[in-house]
Structures are given as structure tokens and as C-alpha cells.
Amino acid sequence: MPPWLQDVATTTEPGHPWLLAVRLVLSFFCGFLTAEIYRRTHGGQIIPSFRATLVLLTILIAAVTQVIGSNVARAFSLVGALSIVRFRTVVQDTRDTAFVIFAVTVGMAVGAGDLWVAGLTLLVVAAAAAVVARGKGAVSAVAEEGYSLGIWMAIGYQADQLLKPVFDRQVERSELVAVATASKGAALETTYRVWLKPDANPAHLVDAINDLEGVHNVQLRRLGPGGA
């Protein structure tokens, strides 16, 4: 390891401008590598903003780790301050959550000066993600493509019970993504990710759901490599 890099890994003096700058630059490169590992092993449609989030998150966690240092009181204060942040975006793939934790871990390691931890984590996770991606290669076309199905229905109806007959006929697999109220609480918005049966027609699925009692509106949107 070069002497200057060894200084970055071993110096514990808080607030040193040169140390902070180098660690933030290193966290940027580590975040970029994290985003590249995500892109190359994803196998489906990628949201550009998520890749940017991984890079920025790595840098911010490295900065937060520098701010905290060994001050326990400061750590609790930052946890309380950051706990007010709320996000409405639903993570549709649990694998994306793993990469968020990956970015946090790498950023924290760089910020704390544990460069070996950051480097080895990047290598091992990259290898593991590549192996998993190859293992699902044979079914990637089926696994990644699908539809986002949004249904607005009146309050008081059970979505699963109401949709079961239609899903049994036309849907091969479904996953509940989100449930929220709409129209100031007068309606229920339910979002599914669905994979249609080979002989199913998307337009027929929308018509069948729209004809159900209590359904106000239906939206079916294509996902995957061919989707928007």
C-alpha cells in the first residue's frame, strides 16, 4: 500500500482537511464501483437514479462516519436527525435493498479508514453478484419482464379476494408492491407486479379487472428491458 494511502487508512485525527478530501474522493470511486457492479449484474431494466443514489449514498455515509468519529453522543444525535427522512419510493426488487446496504457498508468503511474492508467487500460482493447473475441467466427473460398493475377500488373491498378469480385465469405470478389510500381516503390504491400466463392478453386482463364490482380504475404498465 502506498505511504499516502496508508496514512489515509491509519490517521485518526478528526477534521483534517486533507484526510477528509482523500477519503471522500475514495468513497466516490468506491460508490462508482458499487453502481457498476449493480449495473453489470442486474440483468434487467435499470433506473438511472438508483445508480446515482448508490454513488451519492457511499459518499454521504463516508462523510457522516467522519463527522461521528468516536463520539458516541454525536452518533446518537445524527441517528435522530436522519430518522426524520422519509421516502415514498417502493423498492420493487429486494436485491436493490442489498445494494443499498452494500453502499452504506463501503462508505462507512472508507470513512472509518478501513480501506481493506472496503476493497475486499467490493471484490467479494462483485464475485457473488456475478455468480448469482449467471445462475439466473437461463430464466432472466421470464424473471425480469413483467407488468406493474395499479388498481383503484372503493374502500371496504378486499383486493386479494376480489382479484383472485381473474388472477387465477390470466396471471402466472403476482407480487404485492404497495397499498395506499387515494382520493382523500375515499379509495384504495393497490399496486402489484404481475407476470401473465403465456396465453393471457394484457387488454383482456384490464377489461376483466375493470368489470369487477368496486373497481374505479386500472392501469397496466410494462416493466423489464422492453418497458418504459
What does this structure look like?
Helices cover 57% and strands 18% of the residues. By secondary structure, it is α+β, with helices and mostly antiparallel strands. The protein has 2 domains: 3-138, no CATH class; 145-223, ACT domain (Alpha-Beta Plaits), CATH 3.30.70.260. Strands 2-3-1-4 form a 4-stranded antiparallel beta sheet. The longest helix is centred in the first third of the chain and has 26 residues, at 17-42. The protein is elongated and about 65 Å long. It starts with a helix and ends in a 5-residue tail after the last strand.
The average pLDDT value, as a whole number, equals 80
Gyration radius, rounded: 23 Å
Class from secondary-structure proportions: alpha+beta
Span between termini = 45 Å
Give short descriptive properties of this protein.
228 residues; alpha+beta; Alpha-Beta Plaits; elongated; single chain
Topology (SSEs and partners):
Layout: H1 3-10, H2 17-42, H3 48-68, H4 72-82, H5 94-111, H6 115-135, H7 140-144, E1 146-154, H8 159-170, E2 171-182, E3 187-196, H9 202-210, E4 215-223
Helix pairs in contact: 2-3, 2-5, 2-6, 3-5, 5-6
What would you say about this model in short?
With 228 residues, the protein is α+β, with helices and mostly antiparallel strands. 57% of the residues lie in helices and 18% in strands.
